[in-house]
Amino acid sequence: MAHHLTTSYTKDALDLFRYYKRLGERAIEQCPDEGLFATLDAESNSIAIIVKHMAGNMRSRWTDFLTTDGKSPIGTVTPNSKTRRATEPS
């Protein structure tokens, strides 16, 4: 898909965000449910964990971004958060 930039930064940023969101959704749709939680080895994360971490990071970075440094407690990683399954609450 070719990206057509406009004179509106906000519109371009939203369009690009939606494009990558849909790209990710379509990729995940191709994976069977059990594959979302599979890991290659003890050192790797599952697709579900990676998506959960990315969502938390984006929520943290874009919450109050005009008044804070982008490091909110939402995205804080604790020792247990790396081993918790994606279906468990944060």
Q: Name the overall outline.
A: flat
* Overall radius of gyration: 16 Å
| Whole-number mean pLDDT | 79
Portion in strands: under 5%
What is the number of beta strands?
Answer: 0
The helicity comes to: 40-55%
Residue runs with pLDDT of under 50 for 5 or more positions: none
Structural class: mainly alpha
Tally of alpha and pi helices:
3
- Number of self-contained structural domains: 1
Largest sheet: none
Distance between the termini: 36 Å
Encode the helix/strand succession as letters: HHH
Description of the molecule:
With 90 residues, the protein is mainly α. It has one domain (9-82). It has helices spanning 9-29, 33-36, 47-62. It is flat and about 45 Å long. The termini are far apart. The mean pLDDT is 79.
Topology:
Layout lengths: L8 H21 L3 H4 L10 H16 L28
Characteristics of this structure?
mainly alpha; about 90 residues; 3 helices; single chain
